[in-house]
Write a structure and sequence with these properties.
Elements lengths: L2 H8 L3 H9 L6 E3 L2 E3 L2 H10 L16
Antiparallel strand pairs: 1-2
Protein name: Helix-turn-helix domain-containing protein
Organism: Ruminococcus difficilis
InterPro entries: DNA-bd_dom_put_sf, HTH_17, SinI_DNA-bd, Tn1545/Tn916_Xis
Length: about 60
């Protein structure tokens, strides 16, 4: 799914989603210039970071 779709499904804002990707906390697939997030990866990310402040880079757990 695209960043916008992932943001809508998860309830995380688009800008926050972009920050998580740039910090290397949420892996993406690059297809040309488009960034794609796998739904299973997003599920694992949400489970690993439940109850954490996603705006604090040091609190967010990285997902592989």
């Amino acid at each position: 799914m695209t960043i916008d779709e992932a943001a809508e499904v998860s309830g995380i804002g688009r800008n926050t989603m972009r920050k998580l990707i740039s910090w290397g906390k949420l892996p993406v697939l690059l297809v040309g210039r488009k960034k794609i997030i796998r739904s299973d990866t997003l599920d694992r990310f949400m489970t690993a970071n439940q109850g954490r402040n996603l705006l604090n880079q040091s609190e967010v757990r990285k997902v592989e």
